[in-house]
Design brief:
Elements: E1 7-12, H1 17-21, H2 23-31, E2 35-40, H3 53-70, E3 74-76, H4 89-102, E4 106-109, H5 117-131, E5 152-156, E6 173-176, H6 181-189, H7 194-202, H8 207-220, E7 230-235, H9 248-253, E8 257-259
Parallel strand pairs: 1-2, 1-4, 2-3, 4-5
Antiparallel strand pairs: 5-7, 6-7, 6-8
The structure holds zinc ion.
Length: 271
């Protein structure tokens, strides 16, 4: 059906989540000929204690669109409010419609462990939306025809590389983003309203510098390569998503990818 279509879908909970942990890899895939798609599931309506909610939503939407425009990515508007991203029927059907429209073969999505629930629930929604893409009797909102392409899911690092219990998360797949760090900074820099907000709420006095340090830490977690900046991923198991196991990120990006994962192929017939 659409197996030849080269499309990558990067999805985060909030505007700037993709920019923090996935944008470098997204840029590299775009450079390799993949059509990039970006989405933040939440409108980020709570991102200010001063501005009216509708004003915050408008600002955050514009910033996200500006960031996507940096790499000519297709931007998909949010479908939920902050702290309202639940793993539930309506959002799942809406996310499935988006996945069926995009027909991605590679999906970059949040970690299943992170410091806040919007992130982890986004990951869960996207996983099942991809899982249900081919199920004819599963009706999306709005209705969209099922799609049959193989899709490979890569979970990005949690925010600042730690889960909610302070554990350092060491990825199994590293991507050298040094060559596209300036573009990643440019994209994150589009989220100007976050400068003040992250300072007030998280003591992050310079969110651009914070992202740079986080990307440098990921590079240091991979002593096998002396890269300056990296993004890290853990790949979702392929069952239900692709006919065969595979690692298209490594195939496409070549020596920009270092994979430490041991062979984890399970015996046939496991349930
Ligand atoms: Zn977030």
């Amino acid at each position: 059906m659409s197996a030849e279509k080269k499309t990558v879908f990067a999805v985060g909970a909030h505007p700037d989540d993709v920019e923090f942990n996935m944008a470098g890899t997204l840029v590299l895939l775009a450079q390799a000929g993949y059509e990039p798609h970006m989405m933040n599931v939440s409108r980020s309506n709570l991102d200010s204690n001063e501005l009216p909610e509708e004003e915050v939503v408008r600002i955050r939407r514009r910033e996200a669109e500006n960031s996507a425009a940096v790499i000519q990515a297709v931007y998909h508007p949010p479908i939920a409010d902050d702290l309202m991203i639940f793993y539930e029927n309506s959002l799942l059907r809406r996310m499935t419609a988006i996945v069926r429209e995009i027909q991605p073969t590679i999906v970059l999505l949040p970690s299943l462990t992170d410091y806040m629930e919007d992130h982890t629930n986004t990951a869960r929604l996207v996983i099942t939306a991809c899982f249900s893409r081919a199920m004819k009797h599963y009706t999306s909102i709005p209705p969209r025809d099922p799609t049959a392409q193989d899709v490979y899911l890569y979970h990005a690092q949690p925010h600042t590389n730690r889960d909610g219990m302070r554990n350092l998360i060491v990825p199994e797949l590293f991507v050298d983003i040094s060559s596209v760090m300036e573009t990643k900074l440019q994209m994150l820099g589009c989220h100007e309203s976050q400068r003040q907000w992250l300072d007030e709420t998280q003591g992050m006095d310079n969110y651009l510098e914070s992202m740079r340090q986080s990307s440098a830490e990921v590079a240091r977690l991979n002593p096998a390569c002396s890269w300056r900046y990296a993004e890290g991923f853990r790949q979702h198991r392929h069952v239900g998503f692709s006919a065969e196991d595979g690692n298209p990120l490594a195939d496409i990006l070549g020596d920009k990818v270092h994979c430490t994962r041991a062979d984890d192929s399970a015996p046939r017939g496991d349930a």
